[in-house]
Specification:
By secondary structure, the chain is α/β, with parallel strands linked by helices. The chain has 14 helices and seven strands. The strands form two sheets. The protein has a five-stranded mixed beta sheet. A two-stranded antiparallel sheet has the order 6-7.
Length: 302
Amino acid sequence: MAKATKKQALGRGLSALLKDPSNDIQSVQDKNADKVIGNIVELELDCIEMNPFQPRTSFNEEMLRELASSIKELGVIQPITVRKLGFESYQLVSGERRFRASKSIGLQTIPAYIRIANDQESLEMALVENIQRQDLDPIEIALSYQRLIDEIQLTQEQMSERVGKKRSTIANYLRLLKLDPIIQTGMRDGFLSMGHGRAIINIEDQNIQLDIYEKILANKLSVRDTEALVKNYNATDEVVVPKKPTKEELPKFVKKGVAAFSEYFGQKIDVKVASNGKGKITIPFHSEEDFNRIKKLVEGEK
């Protein structure tokens, strides 16, 4: 508890330093820059503007309310990151959900890390930080990768180093952007997974992509079913939903015998019979004691 108090006091002290016009830090070479850069500082929310480079545009309102409730109870556990624009003026780099949630419950200040960065560095930081999040959908990640390519001119190899992902992983995400926009929206809304998307992307014609997408939703197809459908289309030029294997009916003599077996062993017995008449009987057990009980029954012991 003492450590937390000390940290908060340090943050308030640095906040006072930043409010002194004679200490207006604009670069890492400025006086007292080393006291601010890399440390947690309590900043007034009203001094922070939103980041125009924020890659994420949609926020789950229910999750924001849950986060706000947590912050009200425990405070902001993970500081946000901002970059300094001018005297008492900052721009959000990462932590927009924490920023929004804090504002919604009327907090006046928020703990923050201050960075000195130009627009390009700010965009790169925001994009890389965004990609590292756990709750992003595949299309959001793909769009962030694409922006790093378009606006920062990073190669896939450079991105691999920045975000700690294999180059092949990055390429797989980027390929998703070739899907029809309706399918991309479906992925963002959680109607199908990245695995579904990776299967569909093997079809170039977006009209066929949409046909397959509709069949996935209508028939609740798994990723494996979708891969089979795409493979079949590439071979026949027809979009046909693969038939699920029907469960074979057990012969009458087996049905009668299963009931007797189950009664004898005191639990449900599983029997499978192949088309050639050969079969297998499975007797489950739930503990060592149960196994020994069944063993005695098999051996004919009382």
